[in-house]
Design a protein that fits this description.
Strand content: 15-25%
Distance between the termini: 12 Å
CATH architecture of the largest domain: 3-Layer(aba) Sandwich
CATH superfamily of the largest domain: Glycogen Phosphorylase B
Oligomer: single chain
CATH class of the largest domain: Alpha Beta
Structural class: alpha/beta
Length: about 375
């Protein structure tokens, strides 16, 4: 008997997580894997390029939901996704990560009594000001299968009373994608395009509201980047949200022209720049994991992280959002090239294989 599974993606990190899962499902003739794109990241540079580079099949559904408040976006995804589920009648829904698509799909599937599998379960920042934290908590409570990337996820779910029979420590599918595409990453010519030498530039990405929605924070960020550009080359792929806020506050013109500004980069080129950077300066979640695997120093401009293993054994340093302190840490870090750090357990490129085997066993046993 065959099974139908729908994976729901909405934003850049989701695409990276679903790519190896889609590939692993190809080993199962009895499983039909369908991808539904909610449209949460609609910009081609944040969406289409990742499907092409990661060899993800064209989504069977694109709900076209983008923009709006969290409530409006979540409600629109729920309404549209319910129609998909009623039509397809899948045996299971996979939700990766912690974006609004994750929350919306989990809610709809659970109310229709369709089992939910959460990829990257159990991560907690313990900061409910972050919408992602709310999304993570609710998705975990609604899920029938919870796939965990690191020890903190197991600990958090135990504290929250989640049935341990639902929880599986499978490793990190983000790393699966990195391992799979490492040959292409190594072959990328992106450094030559920007005239960059190994370890002689800082790669920066910022998009979180705590850093880019407040004009004062934006000015402080630009001030730091301008100062750094007098010491070392600075590469700044510009997230659409960040660029829009800079434009609306009249700050784009204050960026030092020495800073290499680019549109958002594709998956291959961004990781090619990451692996050869002196350090990463970011507020991203997934980049903390990628730099840990690549053993590249990462300075995270946030007050907390849901990925603590990147700090305890990895190469990540959490510095808060006071740019005076960020400046001190960055300048100190630039004086040394420190590539010390351990790769966390099961970050070995085989997480998706483990996940798909568990799902296959679950669906078969559920019908016995």
């Amino acid at each position: 008997m065959g099974f139908k599974i729908i994976s729901v993606v909405g934003a850049r990190p989701n695409f990276i997580k679903i790519a190896p899962i889609d590939k692993a499902f190809q080993a199962y003739d009895s499983i039909q894997h369908i991808i539904c794109h909610t449209g949460q990241h609609f910009d081609p540079s944040m969406s289409k390029v990742f499907f092409e580079e990661l060899n993800i099949p064209k989504p069977a559904y694109n709900l076209g939901v983008s923009g709006g408040s969290h409530a409006r976006q979540t409600a629109a995804i729920m309404t549209a996704f319910e129609e998909v589920l009623l039509h397809e009648k899948p045996d299971l829904v996979i939700v990766p990560g912690d974006v609004n698509s994750t929350l919306a799909a989990s809610l709809v599937a659970a109310k229709l009594q369709i089992p939910v599998a959460h990829v990257e379960a159990g991560l907690r920042s313990y900061d409910r000001r972050m919408p992602e934290e709310i999304n993570r908590i609710i998705a975990d409570q609604l899920s029938d299968l919870l796939f965990v990337t690191e020890q903190s996820g197991l600990d958090n779910l135990a504290v929250e009373g989640v049935d341990k029979r639902k929880i599986f420590f499978t490793g990190n599918v983000m790393i699966d994608s990195l391992v799979c595409h490492k040959p292409l990453i190594d072959q990328s010519e992106v450094r030559n395009r920007f005239n960059l030498k190994v370890y002689e530039y800082v790669l920066c990405t910022f998009h979180r509201p705590s850093n880019v929605d407040d004009p004062g924070q934006l000015k402080a960020l630009i001030g730091l980047l301008n100062e750094l550009s007098g010491i070392i080359k600075v590469v700044l792929p510009m997230h659409p949200r960040t660029k829009q806020n800079m434009e609306s506050n009249g700050l784009l013109s204050t960026i030092n022209p020495e800073i290499i500004q680019t549109e958002p980069l594709g998956y291959i080129d961004f990781l090619a720049l990451t692996k050869d950077a002196r350090l990463l300066l970011t507020d991203s979640g997934g980049i903390q994991e990628e730099t840990t695997f690549l053993k590249v120093p990462c300075i995270t401009v946030r007050d907390n992280t849901e990925r603590p293993i990147t700090c305890t054994i990895g190469t990540n340093t959490l510095v808060g959002t006071d740019f005076r302190h960020v400046r001190e840490v960055v300048l100190k870090s630039l004086k040394t090239i420190d590539h010390e750090g351990e790769i966390p357990p099961l970050w070995d490129g085989n997480a998706a294989v483990r996940i798909c085997e568990i799902i296959n066993n679950y669906l078969n046993n559920k019908l016995l």
